[in-house]
Amino acid sequence: MSTKTVAYDVIIAGAGPTGLMLAGELAMAGVRCRVVERREDRTRESRALGLHGRTMEVLNMRGLAEEVLARANPIPQVRVSLGHSLFDMSRLATDYGQLTIIPQGETEEILEKRATDLGVAVDRGVALTGCRQNGPVVHCTLEQNGKVWEESASWLVGCDGSRSRVREAMGAEFTGATYPYTIIVADVRLGTPLDDQLLIRVGRAGLVVATDFGNGWYRMGVIDRDKPWSDEPVTLDEVERTLAKLFGRNMRPSEPLWTSRFHIQERQASFYRQGRMLIAGDAAHVHSPLGGQGLNLGIQDAMNLGWKLGAVVGGRASDDLLDTFELERRRVSQGVIKVTDIATRMMTSDRLPARIARRTVMSVASRIPATHRTAVGHLSGIATRYPTMASAVGASPLTGTRVPDLRVAGHGAPVRIHEALRHGGFVLIDREDGAPLLPAVAEGDGRLVRIGGRIVADSGPWNKPEVVLIRPDGYCAWAGPRARARQELALACRRWVQS
Ligand SMILES: Cc1cc2nc3c(=O)[nH]c(=O)nc-3n(C[C@H](O)[C@H](O)[C@H](O)COP(=O)(O)OP(=O)(O)OC[C@H]3O[C@@H](n4cnc5c(N)ncnc54)[C@H](O)[C@@H]3O)c2cc1C
Description:
Layout: E1 2-3, E2 8-13, H1 17-28, E3 33-37, E4 50-51, H2 53-60, H3 65-71, E5 73-75, E6 77-80, E7 85-88, E8 99-101, H4 104-117, E9 121-124, E10 127-134, E11 137-144, E12 147-158, H5 165-170, E13 174-190, E14 198-203, E15 206-212, E16 218-224, H6 236-247, E17 253-269, E18 273-274, E19 277-279, E20 285-286, H7 294-313, H8 323-348, H9 352-367, H10 369-380, E21 407-409, E22 415-416, H11 417-420, E23 426-430, H12 440-444, E24 448-452, E25 454-455, E26 467-470, E27 476-480, H13 482-496
Parallel strand pairs: 1-12, 2-3, 2-12, 3-9, 6-14, 12-19, 23-24
Antiparallel strand pairs: 4-8, 5-8, 6-7, 10-11, 11-12, 13-16, 13-17, 14-15, 15-16, 17-20, 18-19, 21-22, 21-25, 23-26, 26-27
The structure holds flavin-adenine dinucleotide.
Flavin-adenine dinucleotide is lined by residues 13-19, 36-39, 47-49, 104, 127-128, 159-161, 165, 185, 260, 262, 281-282, 289, 292-295, 298.
């Protein structure tokens, strides 16, 4: 085996959505990173096709949302056949009150272009076959076309999917379970059109989730109760028969672009970091596809980890900051695993209590405004809050919450906060144009943008604080009155900007 030592700060294993998003974040932070991807080509399978509201906000914070929207079909409402329930995302307080439908391959293309434009090397056809940590270095064994060599980096991040090599090398367990049924996915045209763009239909025969790509094709995700488990290849004939059973009429599917059958699992890694090795995305957690959260969680993991690892590599933070990645993101994926597990069991069981429960729960959740708000808030990621941040000194109830795209009016035209975050650093909103509030070093290194002015329009609780510090991933690090800001902000900064 040859040894080639390349001076990368970070090697990322896996060019899926998580790895590509992370690569872009690290490059923005000035980190030299390289992505190695086992596959020769980008996936052409549609796989994960729905971007939720918070993911679109995050992509907007990096200037990518417009390109996604130009290729996507935005769907504002999900209809569930049970009790004629309707989940309406257009009522969410975001510019992206919708499920944005775009095939995974296209999302990856956009993320890869951003990463390579920022100077990241994405090497396809290169597999990570082993890794070990030795002091401040991680040695990675790489393989391409039978050639094996070793490269080293200061950090290794496994974004290498559910069978992660990096997770294995870290010695983390992937505990959980495999559900006792397989799911069929088929991207097809339908001879019998559907009235809804996104429909979940549940009956005695099973479950179907039908999603309109907006270009004549539909994604049909099906669980057939008569054939719960199979490893056979999917045929168009099987898709036609199963859909006819579930819809009570022939849906006349044709021209399959992609079909697959896969096992549903729910698993979580016992830890996300060991020294200089970390995992994110599917490598750290997998769950039922009901709710379409997989890719969304991966992108949010990358957004959370990117600026933290960037700060550690750049010497602006101690590596303790990385522990907050697991603390914050693990709780979110745990919540998703729990909720999707309950929903999947409820939707797939044919037992009487489950049949009663799903009708009752769906009706209550969709018809009572407060429960509807909670349901779509969690589904979209808009309601995500990082409670570990609440322990920050002087925390207000806004600390740890997602910051909406606030408009701040100063001297010139109003500034949109999600656009202000595009530089990849912190943003400080200060209602007064007074003396700088933060230590000069924090404001001076270009990683903190200060915006003087008042938050305009009806921004609910955000109208109250005079000063707001926003993290690079769009979460509130500190909010409060100017009188408390000088002392408490410095402490908050020590925690988040420079540990
Ligand atoms: C068939 C299928 C259908 C799906 N449908 C949906 C859906 O409808 N909705 C939804 O939300 N989610 C769906 N998912 C899940 C979703 O695709 C994942 O949650 C998402 O892709 C996670 O992104 P990731 O980057 O973390 O991992 P992945 O997308 O799995 O990317 C990991 C990458 O790492 C590479 N890799 C693996 N091992 C190595 C190695 N040793 N060296 C180098 N590279 C390596 C892989 O080739 C891959 O490109 C589906 C998944 C599958 C498999």
